[in-house]
Every structure is written in structure tokens, then in C-alpha cells.
């Protein structure tokens, strides 16, 4: 039988856009020693704005760089893609049609635009391809830069910025006050991850982590004796959510529904995550 205090608590929680799929995990909220947050869309607003367009080849103009990128990104669900499409709209650029669109998980997108092979990718992807970062496009804290490749050569790049959610400060502080360490796990570059982690006074971060490496990072913390809860926003995060002692999927959408999370939160507000953990603790403390 479900103890009364739990049934009261879970029905109360359903009203808050919270679905608890694994009650044991929820009971274990009181054991959590480290909470690993995903960055984009949870600690930050996840709305990227293009702050600069750089041309790295004499063969192209700013408009062409934006046009190539936006034509592909129109097919992407990623917040970076949405920011690039927005920039094209602001510049009065109409995206062209794209063929063979493909998302390169955790790295970018690729496809064919106007008969050219186009890629919009992370600095990590350039490194893999042995392409040097062009002058003026070096990593900088708070800036997420993506590179536009045309037929495998760097034509230009776009600098984007996301903003920290005001609720993140309180969420991190509230957890730390109760002895829970706060970490960040992101696919974004180290300079930006570091800037966000430092700004929020977090206990640590993992950056430039590909979707299939996220699980390993959770294991690393567990090997150090941490009891880990993790937030994630999609199917890509499923193995890591399953690895964590408490997996919390955030956001709406089909990805979340299909994920392996123990707990699903409709809102990605970090204060809701904090409240959930503290609520779990309070609920089960009442029973002892
Ligand atoms: P996060 O862990 O913050 O959610 P992702 O794994 O979604 O990050 O993305 C990691 C990196 O991959 C981004 O910072 C970006 O450099 C690159 N990337 C992902 N999707 C796209 C896209 N649609 N266009 C350009 N770059 C992308
Ligand atoms: Mg993500």
C-alpha cells in the first residue's frame, strides 16, 4: 500500500506539472549529494541571440554566411538553430531550401544548400576535422560560436549568446545550503560553461561533452561516492538519466515522454527542480 503521506504528496505534485514515474527514486531524494544540471534551457533561458557574424573567407559575404546557416537551421529543433533563423529574419534574408538535412548529435547540422555542402558546427567539430580556429573566432566566456563550413572549408562563424535565468542563482544557493553540490553538464564550449558555472557559484562543471559521453560523467561522480540526481531535456540524455540515481527529465515534448527518467517536470525552471528535491526530502522525513 502506498503510505498516505506519499499519496497526498504525489497528487499535490501532479498539479505542479510533475510526474513521478519511479517512487523509489523520489524516496531517494533525501540521499542526493550532487545535483547535475544541464545548462541550455535549464540554468539558462535557452534562447540564443546572434551577437556577431564573422566572415573568414574572401569568397563570401555576411549575408551569404547567414543565409547558408539559416537555410539549414530552419530544419533544426535546437535553440541555436532558432537564434540563427531569427537573425536571418531580422536581416531580411529568406532561407533557401535545404536537401539531405542531418543533425550531427551534440555538434551541429549538415546539408546541401544551393548545390553546396554546408555544415554549421561547434569548435569541437573543427578540432576533430583538424581545422584551425580562424583569427578573431577564439573561444570566449559567455559566447557560443558556431562555424559555417562550405564544401569543408571555414567560410564564416556566428557568435551567439544565451542568458542565465534569474531563478538559477536561488536554486543553486538553496541546494548548497542543504549540503547538495551543484554541477553542470553541457555540450557547449568550456569558456562559456566556466563563465556560467562561476557566475552561479557552482561546485563544478563538465563541458564539451557529447550526448553519448554524458553517462560516463555521471559515473565519474558516482565513483567519488556521490549520490547523483541529474536533469536532462531529451532522448539524447536518456542513458545519463538512467545512470543517475535520480533522473529528472525537464520540459514538455515527446523526447521527454520517451525518456528513461524517474521523474518528469513539465517546466524546466531550476527552482522547480530544487523544490522537488526538498519536497521529496520533507515527504519522507515525515514518515520516519
Ligand atoms: P547542451 O548540452 O548545452 O544542451 P548540445 O549537446 O545540445 O548542448 O549542443 C552542443 C553543441 O553542439 C552546441 O554548443 C553547438 O556548438 C553544437 N550544436 C548543437 N546543435 C546545433 C545546431 N543546430 N547548430 C549549430 N550548432 C549546434
Ligand atoms: Mg541539450
Automatic annotation (TrEMBL):
It is found in: Cell membrane. Belongs to the cation transport ATPase (P-type) (TC 3.A.3) family. Type IB subfamily. This is Copper-translocating P-type ATPase. It comes from Marispirochaeta aestuarii. The chain holds residues 323 to 610 of 673 of the full protein.
Amino acid at each position: 500500500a502506498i503510505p498516505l503521506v506519499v499519496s497526498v504528496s504525489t497528487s499535490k505534485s501532479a498539479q505542479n506539472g510533475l510526474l513521478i514515474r519511479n517512487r523509489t527514486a523520489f524516496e531517494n531524494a533525501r540521499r542526493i549529494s550532487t545535483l547535475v544540471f544541464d545548462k541550455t534551457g535549464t540554468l539558462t533561458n535557452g534562447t540564443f541571440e546572434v551577437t556577431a557574424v564573422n566572415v573568414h573567407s574572401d569568397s563570401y559575404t555576411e549575408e551569404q554566411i547567414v543565409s547558408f546557416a539559416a537555410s539549414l537551421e530552419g530544419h533544426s529543433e535546437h535553440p541555436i538553430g532558432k537564434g540563427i533563423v531569427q537573425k536571418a529574419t531580422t536581416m531580411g534574408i529568406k532561407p533557401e531550401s535545404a536537401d539531405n538535412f542531418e543533425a550531427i548529435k551534440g555538434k551541429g547540422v549538415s546539408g546541401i544548400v544551393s548545390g553546396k555542402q554546408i555544415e554549421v558546427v561547434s569548435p569541437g567539430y573543427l578540432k576533430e576535422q583538424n581545422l584551425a580556429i580562424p583569427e578573431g573566432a577564439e573561444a570566449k566566456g559567455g559566447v557560443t560560436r558556431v562555424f559555417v563550413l562550405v564544401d569543408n572549408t571555414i567560410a564564416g562563424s556566428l557568435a551567439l549568446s544565451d542568458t542565465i535565468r534569474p531563478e538559477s542563482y536561488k536554486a543553486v544557493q538553496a541546494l548548497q545550503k542543504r549540503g547538495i553540490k551543484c554541477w553542470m553538464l553541457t555540450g557547449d564550449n568550456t569558456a562559456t560553461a566556466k563563465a556560467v558555472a562561476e557566475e552561479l557559484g557552482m561546485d563544478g562543471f563538465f563541458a564539451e561533452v557529447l550526448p553519448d559521453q554524458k553517462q560516463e560523467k555521471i559515473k565519474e561522480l558516482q565513483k567519488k561516492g556521490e549520490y547523483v540526481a541529474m536533469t536532462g531535456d531529451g532522448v539524447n540524455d536518456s542513458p545519463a538519466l538512467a545512470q543517475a540515481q535520480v533522473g529528472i527529465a525537464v520540459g514538455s515534448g515527446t523526447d521527454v515522454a520517451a525518456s528513461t527518467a524517474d521523474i518528469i517536470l513539465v517546466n524546466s525552471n531550476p527552482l522547480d527542480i530544487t523544490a522537488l528535491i526538498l519536497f521529496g526530502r520533507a515527504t519522507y522525513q515525515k514518515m520516519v
